[in-house]
Amino acid sequence: MKKTLFFLCPIIFIALGIALAALNLPVKAYALYCVEDKAVLTAENADEPIAPASLAKLLTACTALNYSDPDDIFTVGSEQKLVPAHSSLCLILEGHVLKLRDLLTGMLLASGNDAAYTVAVSTARELTEAPMSDSEGVKYFTELMNKLAREIGMYNSNFTTPDGSDSPGQYTTVSDLIKLSEYAMTFPILREIMAEHEKYVVFQSGEHITWTNSNKLLDPNSGYYCENAVGMKTGTTLKAGNCLIAAFEKNGKIYISAVVGCLTDSRRYGFTLKLFSDNVDPVLETVPIGIGARLFGIFCR
After folding, report:
1. Closest CA to 269 of 230, 218, 221
2. In whole angstroms, what is the distance from residue 288 CA to residue 301 CA?
3. What are the pLDDT digits (tens) for 32-84?
């Protein structure tokens, strides 16, 4: 018995240490903002330059909706050759025909870089009569992204890609991401898309697919599921780390958090929920779920 206890003690202490670390998660920068009160509830390093990762897709979506109707029809084309290697994809292919709303769904739920490039180039070509190459279309669209960013007060940002992949000269700040997120929430179609856990879509060309949201706060089977969560966007690159913009609804108010530069996927969710718990909703349960999985699942009420 003594030998058994001696063997188990280190395991228990290791498990406890990992669990405590999960509740005190280091991040590069963060902020929590209340939309209705126009108030930042807490922030750290919010004005430091960071890489945007796929959080940039929120701006891509907003830019496209400023110039195109959600039911506009786009054909996937040769711009797919511009999609960076090892990208997250929603698995559209050249020749597929989709409504813009469906491309935005693939881009925001599955974080499809392939969709981001089709949205960018197709929108650019809709707006110009002169022929343009795929690269010219991307450049034209990112200029529109930066124009919109300045219009909504994102003065410390610059975007060079529609998907947010690591790129020279591309940067933003947590403060600017909060402004972008608040703006994105003014589009009913984006609020609807980002709140979905899964979406079955039939393309105009006949193909069909189910996309699953990369945001685990919306997954009822996830240990990070939160019934107050109403969407937003994940992002991950080598330069940006693991990032998450999350929106919560509580007592008739919308709260937006931005957490960037986390070392792991689990850390971005743990820290995001801790922000919400500490500053908005102190009624959170932490439930042990075993050493073989995450040590704690966090559930919002």
Report:
1. 218
2. 17
3. 999 999 999 999 999 999 999 999 999 999 999 999 999 999 999 999 999 99
User: Which domains are seen in the chain, by residue range?
Assistant: 25-300 (3.40.710.10)
Reported as half-sphere exposure (CB side, CA atoms, 13 A), residue 175 has a value of: 13
**In whole angstroms, what is the distance from residue 146 CA to residue 245 CA?**
20
Distance, in Å, from the CA atom of 164 to the CA atom of 162, rounded to the nearest integer, reads: 6
Task: Measure CA 52 to chain center.
Answer: 10
- 92 vs 76: CA distance, rounded Å: 7
Q: Whats the size of the chain, residue-wise?
A: 301
Q: Which residues of 190-199 are buried (b: 16+ CB within 10 A; e: fewer)?
A: bbebbbbbeb
Q: Quickly tell me which residue has 């509830």 as its tokens.
A: 41
Q: Residues 276, 55, 178, CA angle at the centre, nearest 5°?
A: 50
In sequence order, the 6+-apart residues with CB closer than 8 A to the CB of 164 are: 51, 52, 53, 54, 55, 56, 57, 116, 170, 235, 237, 240
d(C-alpha 234, C-alpha 223), whole Å: 17
**Neighbouring C-beta atoms of residue 252, cutoff 10 Å:** 6
> Within 13 A of 2's CA, how many CA atoms are on the CB side?
0
Report pLDDT for 2.
45
